[in-house]
Amino acid sequence: MADKVKEVARGEAESIKAQTVQAARSAAYLYPLRGIYYFIAHRDLWQPLIKKLAPTMSLGVGVTTFMFLFTYLPQMAVMAFTSGPFAAISAALLVLSESSTLVTVLGKTFLIEDALVDTFDGVLVSKNTTNLVSEGRQIKAGSGVMGKLGKLTKKPFEKFTPKAIIRYFMYLPLNFIPVVGTVMFVVLRGKRAGPAAHQRYFQLKQWSSSQKRQHIEEFKAAYTSFGVAAVLLELVPLASILFSFTNTTGAALWAVDMEKGNVTTDGTAPKLREQAQKAQ
After folding, report:
1. pTM reported for the whole predicted model
2. What is the DSSP letter of 144?
3. DSSP sequence for 94-141
C-alpha cells in the first residue's frame, strides 16, 4: 500500500513538474504584461473603463469597508496560529486580497461585462482582425477603434455562477496556509481564469464545445500560465478592475497571434518566447 501511495505521489509530482516547465516555456504569462503596455499606449481602449470608473470605484470602497468591518478580526484570530506576531499584517493583506477578488467578481458580473467585451473587440479591430469581430457584433464606419464597434450580436462572458462562488470559497481557506496555500489558491484559480479569458475568442470562432475542449487541452499549460499571471494582477488591492481591462487586452493580443498563425503548439508566439529568454 505504501509503495502504491509513493508511486501515485511520484506520478503527480512528475506531471506537475512537466506542466510547470511547459507553462514557463510557453511564456504566455507575458501576455497580461503586454496587455498593460498596449492598453496604456492606446487611448481609444480607455473609453469602456472610463465609463465604468465611478460605479466600480464605489463598489471597491463599499466591498473593502465591509470586509474589514466583518471579516478582519475573525481572520486575524485564525492567522495568529499560522503567522504568529505577523497575524495583524497577514490578516490585513488577506482581507485586501479577498476584497480585490470580490470586487473583480461582482464588477465583471454586474458592471463591466459589456465594457470588457468592447475592450477585447477593440483590440482585435486595432490589430486588423475586423472580420473575426464581425462574427459577434456589427462593425460601423466610425473613426477610431472604439467608434467602429457597433451593436453586440453575441455576449460571451459567463456570469459568476453559484457553482463558481462555491468553488471560490472552497479555495479560500488555502490562504491560511503560509506561502504554499496561497500558491495553490492562485494556481487553482489560474487554471480556470486562463481559458475563461478566451471565451469571447471561442465564440467569435463559432467553435463547438468539443472544439473548445480540444483547444484548451492542447494549450493547457499555456492557459494556466496566462491565468496565474492574470489572477496575480487582479489580486492587487484597489487596482483589480483596472487589471481586468489590461488582462482582457492581453488575452485579445494572444487571440490575434493565434488567429494569424503566430502561435506554436506550446501556446505562444516565438517572439514572445525570445523576450522571456532574454529576461532570464
Report:
1. 0.85
2. S
3. HHHHHHHHHHHHHHHHHTSHHHHHHHHHHHHHHTT-HHHHTTTEEE--
Distance CA 48, CA 149 (A): 12
Tens digits of per-residue pLDDT, 220-241? Answer: 999 999 999 999 998 887 788 9
**Structure-block grid coordinates of residue 120:** 477585447
* Contact criterion met (CB below 8 Å) for 87 and 75: no
Please state, in angstroms and rounded to a whole number, the distance separating the CA atoms of residues 27 and 197: 16
Asked if pLDDT for residue 274 goes beyond 50, the answer is yes
Q: Are 13 and 214 in contact, with CB atoms under 8 Å apart?
A: no
Residue 46 has pLDDT above 70, yes or no: yes
* Sequence-distant (≥ 6) Cβ neighbours of residue 150 within 8 angstroms: 137, 138, 139, 140
Best CA proximity match to 259, nearest among 220, 201, 217: 201
Do residues 32 and 246 lie in contact, with contact meaning Cβ atoms separated by under 8 Å? Answer: yes
Burial class (CB in 10 A: 0-12, 13-18, 19+), 252: buried
Q: Per mean pLDDT, which range of 69-78, 127-136, 155-164, 223-232 is the poorest?
A: 155-164
Q: CA geometry: angle at 193 spanning 189 and 196, to 5°?
A: 145
